[in-house]
Amino acid sequence: MGLNVITDRGEHFSKEELRIEMDKFGQQMPERSLIFLLCSNTIGSLIGYLGCLEHRIVPIMLDSTKDLDSLHNLQNVYRPNYVWAPTDAKFVEGDTPIYECQGYGLYKGDSEDANLYKDLGLLLTTSGSTGSPKLVRLSYENVKANAESIAEYLSIDENERPITSLPMYYSYGISVINSHYIKDATLLLTDHPVIQKLFWMFAQDEKATSIAGVPFTYEMLRRLRIFKMDLPYLKTMTQAGGKLNAKLAKEYIENAQATGKRFFVMYGQTEATARMSYLPLDKALEKYASIGIAIPGGRFAILDVNGNEITESDVDGELEYWGKNVSLGYGECREDLQKGDENHGVLKTGDVARRDADGYYYITGRMKRFLKIYGNRVNLDATEQFLKAVTLSVACVGVDDKMTVFITDESKKDAVKDLLMQKTGINTRAFDVRVIDAIPIKSSGKLDYRVLQAQL
């Protein structure tokens, strides 16, 4: 078990060399220390993460570019024993590191024993908690089980060369690292965004075999005409982190099949470590709008409003997941990190879904992403999906009796209004279509609905 690493700076690390650096890092702290890890897709950040995992040090994975106020707030709430951060980070400005490696420094924090739960292994911010101290508590078993499941259905082996196209602090990004780490693969490590030429030059030069992305990633890659690029070694593309427009999913699946590549539609949440489902390749075209089936070792159920399982097909209900990758629960302060397993392998996803007659699942919306408009229950996610037939740059938010639709193309405004009325049957007075310069996107690549909601 290990990773060979090639960085975009031309550095090469064998898994043995990486292990030496991980061990040096891990020996600087006692086991069960709590540490802030300010992440970037760099070798220093990777050494810190894997060193924590192997030496039973518990990291809180954070965006190294996160604003200082948010970081200081988290520091006050969780009082980490140590901080592992880029030596030029403003968060540690003026402090002296007790250890340095590959542009990162280790800084002392709170000396009080954190008294962490014995199986707690990793702490990730929730996708919906920007600026909030709420964390997802993951066990070593959660991380191991999910990595093994992903490696199994993607057929990962030591010949794989994934490129880091997602942030390391994001559950999807870290799952790419974990699932290849257990298979002795080679990680192509870059902090360049996928829209930059340097990213693709690195992918081409180092023969990247796979790329991971959220819906926004694949919308951008379509504009970049990814299937026209000279990438003969790129064989696998994976998509999760939100629902990809069905028409676009079909286009990617068709193009992948025509060029000898694999395009995997997947579904997951941080609360399930990363992944809960995948769409098998042999059913990808037939079921292109589906999230597929549960990953190896997991299972789904659909529940009615009373919590009873719905056994009939094509009936909407809340999607529930069972598996060893379900997190221990949430944490909102240091004391919460002493708690044990509160979920017991069961996760209510908060997503509305249905199951077809063949046992394939389809996400139809979020439990909380609904508005009541003139007595009608309107699904914001479903609305966004059908509006993408007019424009891919669209986001829907709102309050009861008024939906606000944000787009970036003034010329599409009337077409959006017409389609809204046609599809919902609701008078256009219930819809406010606004044109903005750009739809706000989080660093994870997901739409930032909070920024839009604040504009109402």
TrEMBL record:
Pfam families membership: AMP-binding
Positions of the AMP-dependent synthetase/ligase domain: 33-330
Keyword field contains Ligase: yes
EC number: 6.2.1.26
PANTHER family given in the database record: ACYL-COA SYNTHETASE, MEDIUM-CHAIN ACYL-COA LIGASE ACSF2, MITOCHONDRIAL
Family to which the UniProt record says this protein belongs: Belongs to the ATP-dependent AMP-binding enzyme family.
Protein name, entry field: AMP-binding protein
Organism name: Bacteroides uniformis
Gene name in the database record: aas
